[in-house]
Every structure is written in structure tokens, then in C-alpha cells.
Amino acid sequence: MPSRSNPVSASLDIEGLLIDALESVDEGFVFFDADDRLVLCNDRYRALYPHIAPLCVPGTPYRALLEADAADKHAAGLIDDPEAWIQERLEQHLAPQRLIEQRQSNGHWVQISEHLTVDGGSAGIHHDITEMKAREEQLERYSHMLRDTLENISQGLAGYDRDHRMTLWNERYVELIDLPPHFRIAGTPLLDIIRFCADRGDYGPGDPETLARISYQHLTNPRGHSYERRTTRGRMLEIRVVPIRDGGLVATFTDITERKQAEEALRQSEERYALAAAGANDGLWDWDLEANHIFYSSRWKQMLGHADPEIGDGPEEWFSRIHPYDVQQVTAQLDAHLAGALSHFESEHRMLHEDGTYHWMLTRGQAVRDRHQRAYRIAGSQTDITARKLAEERVQHDALHDTLTGLPNRVLFIDRLRQTLARGKRTGSSAFAVLFIDLDRFKVVNESLGHMRGDELLVTTAHRLEEVLRAGDTVARMGGDEFAVLLEDTSSTVEAASIAHQILDAISTPMLLDGKEIVSTASIGVALWDENYKGPEDILRDADLAMYSAKSEGKARIALFHATLHKRAVAILDLESDLRRALDRNEMVLHYQPIISLDSGQINGFEALVRWRHTDHGVLSPLDFIPLAEETGLIVPIGEWVLRRACEQMGIWHADFPDRPPLQINVNLSSRQFGKVDLVRSVIDTLQSSGMDGSFLKLEITESALMENAQRSTKMLEQLKQLKIKLSIDDFGTGYSSLAYLRTFPIDTIKIDKSFITDMVTNRDNLEIVRTITALAHNLNLDVIAEGVETAEQLAQLRALGVEYAQGYFFSKPCDVPAATELIQRNQTW
User: Fold this and answer.
1) Which helix (H) or strand (E) element contains residue 697?
2) pLDDT digits (tens, 9 = 90+) for 521-540
3) Rounded distance, CA 119 to CA 333, Å?
4) If we measure between CA atoms, which residue out of 535, 504, 508, 289 comes closest to residue 420?
5) Rounded-to-integer distance, Cα 546 and Cα 558, Å
6) How confident is the model at residue 294 (pLDDT cuts 50, 70, 90)?
7) Exposure string over 370-384, b if 16+ CB within 10 A, otherwise e
8) DSSP label at residue 238
9) 90-112 pLDDT per residue, tens
10) What is the pLDDT of residues 429-446, one digit of tens each?
11) Cβ(93)–Cβ(113) under 8 Å?
């Protein structure tokens, strides 16, 4: 009979082969059964963890190994809270697949890959990645060294890959070509930058697209290219383009302005020498006073547009061409010199050119006298100073006018307003009104269409204002998107309001900008003359206050000044004064609104919201003082206090409720806070002082704050992520709503603004917006928080859409610490 194999023996043989195989590999292998007890591990695993080798026997619980490992790491100072670390590892252990990197007490790095097995157990592969980490650190050091080198050279430098997309650059490059922030992103096409420069006029007059294409062809020439060009700021650049082996290119930008100026100065010096050698370039004249004949040089005649034969030698050839308004001045100056009252003759006056225009001339002369000091001859020169005079007139004009619109500026407007006030005081009566105009949402045009289109809008608005106003009225640009109007001979509010309405209608007439029809609106404040006004600044201030009142009432409207507006402004000043002392007086208090996990229905964390217990006005909500804090900069110390107090309170809750999973605290960062260079240092200090681990902190930042400086924001967020802090985009959908930054910035969460949640059950458009945002977030591995949940129907809809978290009055209003603590104790499920 044929022999039969023994199944037990075969199983033992297979197990032995498996163990031999595991011992032959470089990785550490470990297996746990469905009860998380050790089944087997190889010697490499024990070598990676010598401190837990004695526990590496079958049956040892997974947690026991973690506790021993945590104790070793805690003793080495690698972790602060062993229990929190164990809990985190246990949570990771429950995932179907997980990849973990951790540092050992002996300085080595281990990468752990764990997978669930079919029978409910788990298998882990532990790989020593110390050398890989060392290479990464060395690469990072080299990268920093390269960056430091680039930032310390005097030339601007930019590198582009084979697809001509920007891969590296230094700040000197950005400075020299005045590159806006939104182009300073890796991957920006070279052609986009060239088109921007062409649109700005960097390449001179002509069709920007044609100029951009020509410049692009030169820059991407495989043989390289070198040229010079002047920037819109008047600086001269030398640009050299060198191809690199992978098909990309490197461009260097050198500021050669000083060199060119030196060359130009040398050229001018040489030219002056040549002119001096050949004779003065000015027109020369020599007057024989006794014969009454004047010699005029060819150059003198040419300056007036005449050939030699066309002008004789009589004095009338000169004096008949002097502007009628200047003749008396010139003859008086000449007579004074001939009489000996002036040491020399010098006069600036206008002379008639052959083309019918008047040119400004500077005429100088010196008399020759006999022994009796009687002048018998006078000779001199004539210089065309028309360009200088025009420049002086332009400077004088520009000093009192806006260079963009040509309107009077603030200085000239206040001067005219002062004259009107003075005239009223002299005559004992005056009738005029001042309108202060501010364009609504002008910033949106600038940010969406660019500053060039914004300038076009301002110029068009200026022209429309001039067309609407009466002769004798004054319109001025006060700066930015603000205009002011002085209405002469206006004594009634009805008349002033009527003109203001005409202005509103003119401004709101649609206009085309960059091929798009734009409708602009404005808010107008009106102040009528009152005998109590002491100076122009007073009535201008009141018109300004009325304008802000119009804005606060909904924009695109007119508001008349009344005394309560001034009282309100004073009240705001008082509120600002109180706000500056609020922290010192311990008047700020935090309320906490729970954030609910829609998976478990339980509290996952809280959002910290500040309130102000004002001594006179009671408890003020953020809407009553946060805008003022933002404007004054006080939001920074208030924000730092909120972060510190919220972390301290979360530390207390973690200690008071050790048996429940640690809660997370969400804290809002204002744009002012996010703009501070020491933000990361401040957060680190707060975490250290409160003792809270960064993984339990989530910072909420608005889209607009991130996009103010995208490159800097990226670096800042990466530094915060290194602290294990989570990052959330607050009020998503109400700001830039740019999809690009979702890929660029290392964020974890999108918070959907409550304006989309409020009527999502009845408004299909809002429902689709929430659905789209949620799908987008999930595709990018981001979780979603919905704020403003107030009904069970909204909650059910959000759960159906797969939204992870929610907060709102349906769960709880923001509450003080005792009430929030009670919510935690109740452990309610929604």
C-alpha cells in the first residue's frame, strides 16, 4: 500500500520553513492573533527592539509590548505622555492598513507596516530606515544650503524645467522684475510670467501677446540668449538665459542701472566737451546799441523755426516775437541791467515759434560799458527751456492732482474747501456741501481682474463724476477708491441729495473691463456747511462719517450727516480704549461650542469662542468688537490669550476625564495673527506652557488669510504640521474658493460656512454646494465640518452626505466652562 503523509508532520514542516524564511530576511516580522496576542516574531524584530526582547514570547499582549516600548521612549525623552502615545498606536492598530515611522531610544528610525490578516489577527513588518532618514536630512541640509546661497547672491535667478515651468527662484529675482505673489508658486509657466510682464508694459509698446511670444521664443532658444531691458520702475536689467542638460533653462537678472548711468554720464560729459569745442549749442546774439543792430546766430533762428534769410538784424525781430504778457517784464529787466541796477541780464519768457506755438526761452546777457559806465554793447545767449518749464508745470500740477485720474488730489481739495469756508466767513453767508464717495467692493475688482483693470474703473469713474457735476463744483480723488465733491452754492439737503443720486446713477452705469460687463456702485456721505465748522477737515470728517453710515446700511446708497454719527464715532473710540484694557482687567472669557462626530454622535471636541464682559455694556459677542480688534491690531494679543486659555482648559478636561478619548480644541486664527513671523514660536510656547499635545489642537484659518501670501502660508502651515497640529479652512466657500490651494496647503479639514447649511434642506442649490464640497474634500483625503446645524433634518442630510463633523445650536449654543463640562459628563449621543 502507498504510504500516506502525516498532516501534523507536514504542518510542522511548513511552519519550520516559514520560521526559517522569516529569519533569513532583513526586516523584522511579527504576527498577532485575533486577540492581539503575539504568535511569533523573528530575531530581526527582537534586534530592532532589544528593550522588549524578553517579552517577545507567544501569548504576550500587543498592549504590553506597546507599554514597554512607551516606557523606553519616555525615558529617552522621545514622548511626553506614554499613555497618549499608547492610545494613538492602538487606534492606528485598528486600521486595516497603516504605515508608521518612529524613532527609537538608540537613535534609529523604524518604519512599521501593519496589515490585518484574514483570521482577524495582524502582521507587521518593521524596517530600519535610519540610513534613509539620514539621507533625507542630508538632502534637506543641501536644499537649505542651496536656498541660502541663492538668497545671498546679488543677481536674480530663476530656474525652469523642460516644460518651462518655474522650479526655483530667489527673492532678488522677484524684486527685480516686481513679480506679484500669485506667480511665486512652483510650477508657474514661464509664458504666464512673460504675458504678465508684457501686459504691464515691460517690453514696450505694441500688442502684449505678440511681444510675449517674441520674448518667449528668445528665452527658450536652445542656444541661450542675452539681452538688456528697462523695467517699468526705470531700472535697467541684464538678462542671461542658459539652457541646461535636461531641457530646462536658468535665467539670471542683473541690475546694471548704475553701470548704465555711469556710461550715460560719461557720454554726456564727452558730448558736452564736443559741444563746448564746437561752440555753444544755444542761440547767440550780439546787440550793437549804438547802431541798433543785433546779430542773431543760425542756432538762435533755428530755435524759433526759421532759416538764416528769414530773420533780419533789427531788435524788432526779437521783441515782436515775445509773448504780449512777457514784453513788459523783459524790457524792464533789460533796462535795469543797462542802467547798472542789475549785474547781468537774465530773463525767462515765451517766444513765438514759426509753427505758431510759444516756446519758453532763457535769455542771458552781459553789457559792455565805456569808461563812463555807459553800455554800448550787450551780448548773450538764448536757451530753449520749454521742456523744463513743462516739467515744472507738470510737477506743480502733479503736486495738486492725482496722477491716475488727473483730478485734484486731497491737498488741492482741502485748499479749495478752505477758501470756500474763508469766503463764507468774510461775506457772512455761505452755501455749499461736501460729498464723500467710496466705491463698493472695489477690492474685488482689483483681486479678480487685476490692478490695471481696477485703475481703468477709477479713471472711468472720475470721468463720469466730471460729466455729472456743474461748472464751479470740484471733484477730487482722495486716495484709493475714495472721491470727494465740493458743491458750490448748495444750501439744501434736497439739492445735495439730488446731485448725489445723479452721481450714483452715473457710477452704476455698466462698463466693460477686460471684456466683462462690470456694474460698480458707491456709498456717498453728504455734509452741508454749518457755521460751527472751524476748518475744512471738520466738514470732510463728517462727510466721511456719513459715507461709512451709508456703507453700514447696505452700500449703494446716500447718507446725510447728523450729530449722532459723530457721537457714534466717539463711542467707537471709547470702545477701542476699553478694548485695549480688557485683557488687563480680565474681562475676556471663553465659551465653548461642541463639535459632534456624526459617526458616533458624540462630542469630538469644542470650538473656543471669545466673549467680552464689558463693565458698562454687559457681555459682548465677537461681532461687537472683533472687527475693531482686527482694525487696531488688538486681535493679536486677544488671539494669543484665546489660544493659551483654550489649551489650558482642554488640558484640564483631559485630566478630569481620563477614561474617554481625548477631546480636540478648535481655535480661530485671525489674518493679523497668521501674518506674524513669530506665530509658530508663539504656538510652541503655548503648547509647552499648557502641557497639551499638538495633536489635540486644530487651528481654523480663513481662505483670505492664507491667500495674502501663498508661499509664506505654505511654509507656516508646514511648520505647524510638524507640531502635529491639525489645520482647518474656516468658512469655506465664502472667500477665494480657489481649488489650487487645497492641493498646495497641508490642510486637514474644510469647514463649510453656515450660510450653505441654513436652508440646505429646502434650497437645492445649497444642498448641491454642500454635496460638492464634501465630495471634493473626501477626494483630497480631507474631513468636513458643517457649522450652523439647527435642525434634525439638516443633521440627517449631512449624515447622508458623509460629512464627518457638525456643530450648531441643534447640539448646543456656545457655553461657559461649567456648562461645557456638564456636556462632557452627560456623554450624550445625537
Assistant:
1) strand 697-702
2) 999 999 988 877 888 998 89
3) 114
4) 535
5) 8
6) very high
7) eeeeebeebbbbbbb
8) E
9) 988 888 888 899 999 988 999 99
10) 668 899 999 999 888 888
11) no
Instruction: Indicate the residue type of 408.
Output: P
| Grid coordinates belonging to 792 | 434634525
Amino acid of residue 9: S
Q: What angle do CA 617, 595, 670 make, to 5 degrees?
A: 55
Report d(CA 437, CA 466) in Å as an integer. 13
The answer to whether 698 and 749 are in contact (CB under 8 A) is: yes
User: Which of 589, 654, 640, 585 has its CA nearest to residue 814?
Assistant: 589
Report the distance separating Cα 359 and Cα 303, nearest Å.
9
Q: Where are the alpha helices (DSSP H) in 439-492?
A: 442-449, 451-468
Give Cβ neighbours of residue 73 (< 8 Å, ≥ 6 apart): 79, 82, 85, 102, 103, 104, 105
Average pLDDT over residues 66-81: 93
476: CB partners within 8 A, 6+ apart: 402, 407, 408, 409, 410, 412, 413, 483, 484, 485, 486
Q: Which letter does DSSP use for residue 436 in this model?
A: E
DSSP state of 470: P
Q: Which helix (H) or strand (E) holds 649?
A: helix 635-656
Helix, strand and coil content of the chain, in percent to the nearest 5, comes to 45, 25, 30
Determine the Cα–Cα distance for residues 830 and 823; give it in Å rounded to an integer. Answer: 12
Q: Using alpha carbons, list the distances in angstroms from residue 101 to 42, 56, 64, 91, 694.
A: 20, 21, 20, 15, 18
Q: How far apart are CA 193 and CA 169, in angstroms?
A: 13
d(CA 123, CA 368): 114
CA nearest neighbour of 602 among 539, 664, 513, 515: 664
Q: What is the 3-state secondary structure (H, E, C) of 613-646?
A: EECCCEEECHHHHHHHHHHHCCHHHHHHHHHHHH
Residue recorded with cell 452741508 = 528
Count of residues making up the chain: 830
Which secondary-structure segment (H or E) carries 239?
Answer: strand 236-243
Numbers of helices and strands, H then E, in the chain: 30, 31
The arrangement of strands across the sheet holding 293-296 comes to 293-296, 283-288, 375-384, 358-369, 345-352
Backbone φ and ψ of 394, nearest 5°: -65, -45
How many CB atoms lie under 10 A from the CB of residue 645?
Answer: 19
Which grid coordinates belong to 44? 530581526
- Alpha-carbon distance of 438 to 55, in angstroms, equals 75
By the 10 Å C-beta count (0-12 exposed, 13-18 middle, 19+ buried), 500 is classed as buried
634 neighbors 610 (Cβ within 8 angstroms)? no
Q: Which long-range contacts (CB under 8 A, 24 or more apart) does 305-313 make?
A: 305/353, 305/354, 305/355, 306/354
- The candidate with the shortest Cα–Cα distance to 365, out of 330, 324, 313, is 330
Which amino acid makes up residue 481?
Answer: D
Residue 696 gets which letter from DSSP?
G
For residue 476, give the H/E element and its range: strand 474-479
DSSP 660: S
Residue type, 778: H
Angle at 226 between CA 222 and CA 232, to 5 degrees: 125
pLDDT digits (tens, 9 = 90+) for 773-801: 999 999 999 999 999 999 999 999 999 99
Instruction: Dig out the grid coordinates for 188 from the structure.
Output: 508657474
Residue 428 buriedness (CB in 10 A; 0-12 / 13-18 / 19+): exposed
Spatial distance between the Cα atoms of 524 and 440, rounded to a whole number of angstroms: 10
The Cα 369–Cα 739 span in angstroms is 86
Half-sphere exposure of residue 710: CA atoms within 13 angstroms, side-chain side: 16
- Give the max Cα distance, the chain: 161
134: enclosing H helix or E strand: helix 130-151
Which of 507, 628, 591 has its CA nearest to residue 820?
591
The answer to pTM > 0.70 is no
